[in-house]
Design brief:
By secondary structure, the protein is of the alpha+beta class. Helix content is 12%, strand content 30%. The protein contains three helices and eleven strands. It has a six-stranded mixed β-barrel. It has a three-stranded antiparallel sheet with strand order 9-10-11. It has a two-stranded antiparallel ribbon with strand order 4-5.
Amino acid sequence: MTASSFNNIGESNLPDTNSPDANPLALMKAMASSVPSVPSESISQKAPGPMHTIVKTDDGCLMLTAIDSGMHVAVVLQSVIAGCGLTVGRSSDVTFTSTDDMFTEPICICDDFKFRIGDVLYATRVYVVRKASFQLLLGTEFIWKAGVGLFPRWGAIMFSLPEFQVIKGTCERITADKAPPPLAP
């Protein structure tokens, strides 16, 4: 495994790729050593929201993307599907229940939704909803497949498959003026 896309982290923090220590654990340790220490009293603070970042659709449009370990499947807004010119193949077979007992029934499923994180093109099945506070939500199914590690205190999201990369992420609330524009056909 190489560090071909170690986005947003300085090259000086990477271990020598010719050394026997050049493995994912060594790369994580190098990343951790470059982050300032966190005061112990801040450990009790709650995150203001889920971990999120900005990714791109297959055709380059920006998308506000939440990564949520409390959700199993991936979810996308209907406007994103329309904006990408995609068609959906079948009706939804699930109902989502949130922790506050709110129910959402996806309107359909898109089996081959493509998006880019860095230079890597990913494809996954997404459940399509009419309304949400994100444009794309990636759940544990994607987290497992892409080998995702969330590091909210460090402002980093690590992807280990199909290639290693680290991108910026945050748990700060996104206000409407900082969110990507809606995708429109």
